[in-house]
């Protein structure tokens, strides 16, 4: 079984409300199509955390802050996933410890060398 499939299984089993939002095949497809925007932390063969991020321009970050771009809109999300800006914006994070989040964050910063890093709380504040 390849790593993309195993990661999709981990996300599907670990994210509490994901089964209500999307079938497994859609999660697998999202991860497969956006492998370059996925970061994960493992301990041996066991996944400990994963995240999906966007690579946004300064203009798009400003539109998100102003409420012009809605991150909860699936149609808009497709456009944002294709963007290739210098700013990292996390949209999904799955981890049970802050140390796992920090390891993943360090990996993303080393990989992308972003201008900025941001995220919103699940309630979009």
General description of the model:
- Helices cover 47% and strands 24% of the residues.
- It has six helices and four strands; from the N terminus they run αααββααβαβ.
- The protein has helices at residues 3-14, 18-21, 24-33, 58-66, 74-82, 98-112; strands spanning 38-43, 46-56, 87-95, 116-119.
- The chain has a four-stranded mixed beta sheet with strand order 1-2-3-4, with helices on both faces.
- A hairpin with a 2-residue loop joins strand 1 and strand 2 (46-56).
- Helix 1 packs across helix 3 (24-33).
- The longest helix is centred in the C-terminal third of the chain and has 15 residues, at 98-112.
- The protein starts with a helix and ends in a 6-residue tail after the last strand.
**Secondary-structure element series:** HHHEEHHEHE
Strands, total number: 4
Assembly category = single chain
**Beta-strand share of residues:** 15-25%
Spatially, the strands of the biggest sheet line up as 1-2-3-4
Overall average residue pLDDT:
90
Radius of gyration, in Å, reads: 14 Å
């Amino acid at each position: 079984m390849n790593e993309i499939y195993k990661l999709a299984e981990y996300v599907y089993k670990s994210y509490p409300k994901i089964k209500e939002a999307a079938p497994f095949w859609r999660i697998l497809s999202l991860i497969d199509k956006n492998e370059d925007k996925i970061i994960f932390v493992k301990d041996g063969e066991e996944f400990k955390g994963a995240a999906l991020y966007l690579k946004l321009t300064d203009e798009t970050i400003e539109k998100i802050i102003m409420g012009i771009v809605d991150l909860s809109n699936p149609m808009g999300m497709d456009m944002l996933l294709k963007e290739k800006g210098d700013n990292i914006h996390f949209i999904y994070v799955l981890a049970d410890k802050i140390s796992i989040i920090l390891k993943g964050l360090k990996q993303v910063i080393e990989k992308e060398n972003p201008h900025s890093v941001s995220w919103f709380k699940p309630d979009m504040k």
